[in-house]
Structures are given as C-alpha cells and as structure tokens.
Amino acid sequence: MSAYDVIIIGSGPGGYVAALRxxxxxxxxxxIEKYDTLGGTCLNVGxxxxxxxxxxxxxxxxxxxxxxxxxxxLTNLKANITQMIQRKNDVVSQTCAGVKFLMDKNKIEVHYxxxxxxxxxxxxxxxxxxxSTSLSGKNIIIATGSKPNFFPGMxxxxxxxITSTEALNLKEIPKKMLxxxxxxxxxxxxxxxxxxxxxxxxxENSATLLPSMDGTIGKEFLKILKKDGFKFQMEHRVQKVxxxxxxxVMTALNKxxxxxxxxxxxxxxxxxxxxxxxxxxxxxxxxxxxxxxxxEVNDHLQTSVPHIYAIxxxxxxxxxxxxxxxxxxxxxxxxxxxxxxxNYNLIPGVIYTWPEVAAVGKTEEELIAAQIEYKVGSFxxxxxxxxxxxxxxxxxxxxxxxxxxxxVLGVHMIAPRAxxxxxxxxxxxxYRASAEDIxxxxxxxxxxSEAIKEAALAATENRAxxx
Length: 467
What we know:
It contains 13 helices and 22 strands.
C-alpha cells in the first residue's frame, strides 16, 4: 500500500491547487480523479468550455450586429456550431493537459478511478477496468465538487431536457430554448445561443433577476438582457417538462397560480448545483452530510475527523472555482502548520455575459438588514469615452461605503471587462480603503476603469466629474 502525507480526492480547481501547494510545502502528495482527465467540472464541463463558447458567440454577434458601424462589411455570415464546439474542445484539452504537466512537474502522483474511504486513513481507488488500489494518507482532503441540480418534474434526459454539460455540446443551433433559472449558468449559456440566433426564454421562480446580488444590478441587468432580446417569465414555478421527441413542452404556474405552457426545441435546466459525494464512502469514516448534501467543516475546513478536510463546492459557501482554489491553498498551509488567511467577504463573483457582471462585498440590501449606515456612489458606463469608442455603453458601477468612516463595503458592476475590473475593488477592500482613497488614485484615460474612480467620487460628497 502506497503511503502519503496528503491524499486529495478530486482534481478540480480546489483539488489540483491543493495538491500543488502541498507539494510546494514538501509533502508527498497523491491526487485521485475518477474521470480520465484532470480539472474537474470547471476545466472539462464548466468555467473553461463555457467561456470558450461565450467568446466565440460574442465574435459572431459583433460580426452580425456591430461590424458595419465599425466600417467592416461581411457577406454570407453564418455560425458554424461544429467548429465552435471543436475549438472549445481544443481549449479544454490544452487546459487539462496543462494541469497534468503541473502534476508531473511537482511530482504529484495521480491515481485515476473512484476514490472511496475504507477507513479514516485509507482510500480505495477503483479504476475503470475494475481493479482497485489502496492508498494510505496522514491527511486527506475531500474536493469532490458538485453536479447540476434539478427539482421534481424537470429531470434532465440529456437529449431535449438538458443540463449545462449537454448545452456545451449541442450539434445544432436551436430555434428556441427554454432556460429554467435566471442565475449565472442559465444566463451565460443562454447568452451563447441567443447570440447565435436562438430565441431564449428564461423561466424564473423569483420576482427579481439575480436575487442574491445587489438589487440595482439585478434591475439594470434585466433591462440590458431584455434589450438584447431575452424573454423573461418571472415568478413562474415550473411543474413539469416533457420531451415530445423533436421539442419540449413545459408546464408552469404563473404568479396568479394559473397554469401556462411553453414549447421549445430544448429546455436547459439551470437551477444551480449540488454537492457531490456519491460513492465516497463517508459512512465508513463516520461523516454525514447536511440537508444540502454538503460536508460540514469548521473554520479550518476540518471535518469532525481532524485529519480529514473538505473544500470547494462540497462545503458551505459560494460554488466558485476561485473560492475552491483559495480553500485548497488554505488547507495545505494549515496542514503544514502555517496560519493562512481567507476572507470570504472578499471573494468576487462574476457572470460572463456581455457586458459582464461582477461584485464583491456587501449588497445594499444586506447593509439595510444589518442596520449599517451607508452611502452610495454610481456611474454609468455610457458616460465613458472608452465605452463610446468601443460601442460598449451598457452598464453601471456602484460603490457602497460606510457613511461614517467612508470605508468601501461593497462594489457592484455591470461593465465591459467587469471580471477584471472587480479586482481593483477587491484589492482596495482587502486593505480597507475608503471611497476617497480610490477617488484619489490616478486612473488611465481612456479606460473602463475610470468608471470605478468616478463612482468613488460620487460616493465621496457626490463629486463625480463626468456626469
């Protein structure tokens, strides 16, 4: 039996990054992955492939709708979905190969197969050919991630009623797609097909879009998406979805309780994700999951078995790849006896539509609930010279600061490259900057980042310069 300082079950962003940090810290490390490629959901059927298709579809959309205004004329423009999928697959293959290279470079032993606890220090790895290997570990990290969620009546058949996994590999551009859930996954993949010419109709149970984000952002984003051609049915509760062969029919109850039906080529079920622990053998080590299927951990990400840790989507908190990565590094350093720092309030969230949506810190609604006095500064993207030059004028930057101390408490934005712009806010908030601190930093002109300075100026005695 092979013995290790650390065994990590799951090679997604949390697992493989934990393995890298453990190896850097001098630990003999093993990584277990049940599939044939490393990288987990994020690299194989999540973050990376969806961004590849988002970029391809955005190029097509611009070619169809904005190139003429730029003085670029095209004829016979068409979308080749087969080539888009192939490029996406190439990006995934290259990225997964990069992870394997890093494992080899850092002398991390990779074991392919289903990892399952035999006891508190032993993990069995059952390979696809049926053979099993036992590994012994002083410390074990559970990083088994999550899988698409669904509710009764909307069970995916992976043909017409699909999850994000199947949506990344369609062989045709649908005429119409129903999307259950107006969250990150539904809006991103809905954007891919909307740009390619699909009619996209979102069925959302909530009264507002992105209910967990700042209310201003949700309202503004809804306006932008409607202008782009998205259809929304808010406060509709899905009862059932039926595959009719060449179409799907959905039955839902509207806010009046009336039964309504919708028909489309495909139905994308995008109602979030749920923790995945199937086959892990938690019962063999005395661990149970909570009512959300998650493994319970303490502030050091330890389970009730002190040398067994859990990170990423399988534990509480936001289901984000970068959150999992930070937790992976955190646990590696805890095992090494260090005292790492992880501020959950400053983990940014991003939606990769266009314009992008990004946020960090507290929402206005959270501050009202906590009875914290605050002030707000905002700035429209359309007031930027850079935005007019690039024809990306939709969006807003919103900065929330403490009314008494001026400390920045939250930053929320819809903007071109918001996924990158949000890091200015994260860095500023990590050092507990005030709105005036940001306002007095010289920002280059013309850039999208100027909107952050202007929003900070607006929060500082309402003195934005360009509105």
